[in-house]
Design goal:
Key enzyme in folate metabolism. Catalyzes an essential reaction for de novo glycine and purine synthesis, and for DNA precursor synthesis. The chain has 161 residues and is α/β, with parallel strands linked by helices. It has one domain: Dihydrofolate Reductase, subunit A, CATH 3.40.430.10. Helix content is 19%, strand content 33%. The chain contains 4 helices and 10 strands. The strands form 3 sheets. The chain has a 4-stranded mixed sheet, with no helix packed on it.
């Protein structure tokens, strides 16, 4: 799973991010390019168009939902989405909040960006991380600067065996 979240685990409001962090966008692109990405319908619809160089798996309960984009397919459950990536060496669950909750049991790694701020207006949150199930293996701090309003840290967790 890959996500950026505030200290309060906030992800966004009204299907949009609450921050602009160009380096985090670049990291997301670098990590996910060339791979399948699993997301909920609302997350998919928040994009102006499908993200380039990635195959999108859109999870929705709506049996009539359809997309005409060639690099997209529909799954009607998280289990169905996971089945579509089972042969892949690497794939990513990219949100939103409910998809993260459903997907955590299938994940073996968390690539998180922790933003050092809280966002009281948020309406979507990342699930609480069970520290007994995950081990922090890497962290990289980035201070705020002219392009980044907030300090943030990249955190990599791997599932305990």
């Amino acid at each position: 799973m890959i996500a950026a979240m505030g200290e309060d685990r906030s992800l966004g409001k009204d299907n949009d991010l609450l921050w602009h962090l160009p380096d985090d966008f670049r990291r997301f692109k670098n990590l996910t390019s060339g791979h399948k990405i699993i997301m909920g319908r609302k997350t998919f619809e928040s994009f102006p168009k499908p993200l380039p160089n990635r195959f999108h798996i859109i999870v929705t309960r709506d049996k009539d939902y359809n997309t005409l984009h060639k690099d997209c397919t529909i799954a009607h459950s998280m289990e169905e989405a996971i089945d579509l990536v089972k042969e892949d060496k690497l794939s990513f669950i990219i949100g939103g909040g409910e998809i993260y909750k459903q997907g955590e049991e299938f994940a073996n790694k968390l690539e998180l960006t922790l933003i050092y701020a809280t966002f009281p207006d948020a309406d979507t949150f990342f699930p609480k991380i069970d520290e007994s199930a995950w081990k922090l293996t890497a962290e990289e701090y980035h201070p705020k600067d002219a392009k980044h309003k907030f300090d943030f840290t990249y955190l990599t967790y791997v599932r305990n065996q």
